[in-house]
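ingest -> validate -> predict -> emit
validate: passed (alphabet ok, no gaps, 87 aa)
predict: started
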Amino acid sequence: MIACTLSNLELRSIVEKAFLPVRCNCTVMDGAMKVEVIDPVTERVELLATGIKLDKLDTSRALCELILKLRADLQAMQQMPQHALAS
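emit:
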């Protein structure tokens, strides 16, 4: 499993760098990961993904697919009208 062969620091680094230049905070604890993508201007959390199970990240492809999904989710959130986010 790739998640098991990578240290938490390496895994965090890969995910956080995937969102540059936007700020991303990745936390790995108890076999799961939490990813927060933060707007650098407003400091508002644009995307919050929790409970990402590390045992699902068993290949580099699975890690890439996770990052692509998170990017797609972020893009979808950014395209939503602001009034839809407020309700």
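The chain is about 45% helix and 25% strand.
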